[in-house]
Hints:
Order of helices and strands: HHEHEHEEHEHHEHHHE
Amino acid sequence: MRRCxxxxxxxxxxxxxxxxxxxxxxxxxxxxxxxxxxxxMFDDLVAATCLSPGSPVLEIGCGTGLATxxxxxxxxxxxxxxxxxxxxxxxxRRLAAHDVRFVEGRFEDYDGEPRSVGMVFxxxxxxxxxxxxxxxxxxxxxxxxxxxxxxxxxxxxxxxPRPPGxxxxxxxxxxxxxxxxxxxxxxxQTHRREAIxxxxxxxxxxxxxxxxxxxxxxxxxxxLLSTHSDLRMLGPDRLTELLTAVAEVVDQNGGKLQLAxxxxxxxxxxKSQK
Length: 274
């Protein structure tokens, strides 16, 4: 049996941990294992927003800089806000060769110059933002004709089979997460698109979609699971037990697992404020 050694990473966590900042203890693993975003999405984003090299962009919750590097790679002038100093440290190292301004803190507390950026961008982070504060703040920061762009990597379990026994493992060891093994929970973000559209600050967001797959080894898959907030909330002992059992199931089914994803991008333009 292969043991997924996550207990040391989880020693500080219990059920009272803030899920929005629970990733910091595994910042390096997060950086290595979390799925990145398709290059085509960033190409479409720049084309749709008519942003040009040097255009100012504010990124919400940059994490370890997985998306930041794509933005600066297209010549955009990025200010990246991140609440977790451990994640921020990885991002700063990743972007050391680039002129990115990093701000430690919550986006809701960000005190930026009004109408100073051409795009507010959030990759997998908008759901952590208090929309009642984040929507008007985003609108206030955007220049006339600026855009709010939010994107997520969403699992598509219906496209690929799960290893037999994986769901039973969850039911036995973490029944409150039953359904995660096959990722059958509805993880669409359409309600967030609707919230942007009905806020009064933005136009109806345009939707873009990109489908792709990724193959992981047993160890890589366990690493990925260890960065998911809902699993980390189990606490160190239960998570270690669960991941050890998951590793055994994947090993028994060839030692590799193919995952299917859909990346969704919502792009709403700022309405003129009278």
